[in-house]
Design brief:
alpha/beta, dCMP kinase activity, single chain, Rossmann fold, 4-stranded antiparallel sheet, 5-stranded parallel sheet, 11 strands, UMP-CMP kinase, binds 2-acetamido-2-deoxy-beta-D-glucopyranose, elongated
Length: about 350
């Protein structure tokens, strides 16, 4: 019977990528919401609603969880209206990605001080895009020589090259949490990042130290007295402000649109600014924690007659998973997929037969 259930599932065109966990009508396959439902013959019990449950699972328990879930789904199928279920698992093996935080702010806004504090107190690794470029050029490496050539010939170094340098440094550092200081400073930097990195790293967000020019200017002139930096004089300070404002404003707008910017008032004393930096880091950490969980999802097919609300299903499964695996090991969310028309999912009676 079990074998025939699996065949039943497969015969409806569901590409199984693993063995069916229970040998019942649950197939492991790529997450491909809704599109896998097309082409089901419209006969027999029709499903009008798909509840998609998304789990983020601690990779250490992912295998146990998957087995448990396959059994637990059968409990969910006892709920009113439920007709069938399918377990969707990712094809690629899961590897946690390093988490990256971008740090922006005008010259003298206090970025450097806050970065040091984050490194010291939160264990982040600090990388400065500018320093890396300078280091690569003086190292004589193949990549460094290439960059040098470009600069000597007065050509602009392709952004892919410089971003690759940054990404290699992040990966080579082996760090799980990285502050990238002074990047992305313009929209060209952003597109280079997207091309090279894609989603191989998780960007938690942007720390932006906001400070009026008068304050930054005063700080830089003060620093210029002792820093020995030739560019800490009034004329080049004004020039740096201008470039900065012109180039970085669109970058901030871009990330603000994605609600990734933490704007921090950098005028206040270091301790007050630090309190805000720390709060932002805590938020980024929550985002990174979610990204270090293995995604697993389930589709539940329901006649919606009578309906069981997706929120209720989520609450049940979350409670059961916490009881089984402990607090925080599994996060659950759910949504109702919009289905146009109705389709046949899995025959309720056929499913029951395999319990
Ligand atoms: C960002 O853009 C600047 C200005 O075009 C460029 O000099 C720099 O190399 C870029 N940074 C990276 C890491 O690509």
């Amino acid at each position: 019977m079990r074998g025939s259930a699996l065949r039943w599932t497969l015969s409806r065109g569901v590409a199984a990528i693993g063995t069916s966990v229970l040998g019942c009508a649950i197939a492991l396959r790529d997450p491909e919401p809704a599109s896998c439902l097309k082409g089901y013959p419209v006969s027999g019990p029709s499903s009008k609603v798909v509840h998609e449950l998304s789990f983020g699972v601690d990779p250490k328990i992912a295998v146990d969880f998957t087995w448990w879930l396959a059994t637990y789904v059968k409990t969910l199928l006892q709920l009113p209206g439920m007709q069938g279920a399918k377990l969707l698992a990712p094809t690629a093996p899961f590897a946690p990605k390093p988490g990256v935080v971008f740090v922006l702010g005008g010259p003298g806004a206090g970025k450097g001080t806050q970065c040091s504090l984050i490194v010291e107190k939160c264990g982040y690794t600090h990388l400065s895009a500018g320093d890396l470029l300078r280091a690569a050029r003086s190292s004589g490496s193949a990549q460094g020589q290439m960059i040098d050539e470009y600069i000597k010939e007065g050509k602009i170094v392709p952004v892919e090259v410089t971003v690759k340098l940054l990404v290699d440094a992040i990966k080579e550092s082996g760090a799980q949490r990285v502050l990238v200081d002074g990047f992305p400073r313009n929209t060209n930097n952003v597109s280079g990042w997207q091309q090279v990195v894609g989603d191989s790293l998780t960007v938690g967000g942007v720390l932006f130290y906001d400070c009026p020019e008068e304050v930054m200017q005063e700080r830089l002139l003060e620093r210029g007295k002792t820093s020995g930096r030739t560019d800490d004089n009034l004329e080049s300070i004004k020039k740096r402000f201008k470039t900065y404002a012109m180039e970085t404003t669109p970058v901030l707008q871009y990330y603000e649109h994605q609600q990734l910017v933490h704007r921090i008032d950098g005028v206040r004393p270091i301790d007050a600014v630090w309190a805000d930096s720390k709060a932002a880091i805590d938020k980024f950490e929550a985002c990174f924690a979610a990204a270090t969980k293995q995604p697993i999802s389930v589709h539940l097919y329901s006649s919606n007659d009578p309906p069981t609300a997706v929120a209720e299903v989520v609450a049940r499964v979350a409670k059961a998973a916490t009881q089984k695996f402990g607090e925080g090991a599994v996060v659950v969310s759910g949504r109702e997929l919009a289905i146009q028309g109705s389709f046949k999912a899995y025959g309720y009676e056929e499913l029951r037969a395999f319990d």
